[in-house]
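Recap from last week: sequence in, structure out.
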Amino acid sequence: YGQLDMIVVCELGEHKIYRFLRNTALILALITPCNTDGIDASISLVGYNEFVAPVVTDVRNINAVVGRVQTRGETFIIDR
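Predicted structure tokens:
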């Protein structure tokens, strides 16, 4: 689980270094993961109050979009 911070489109040119990706675009997501101690929010209530180091990934690696609610100084993930 993480917070989507930014989406970046990278247009790749014709240079041979890109091989089979030549003249295509990569759509990347900057995501800041939540520290949930590995608990699955689709099974039980998961709260978090800290994040870990941001990561960049291809948007095709995003499985689902879930919600969150903030209350009493903690944030809970809504994955139903």
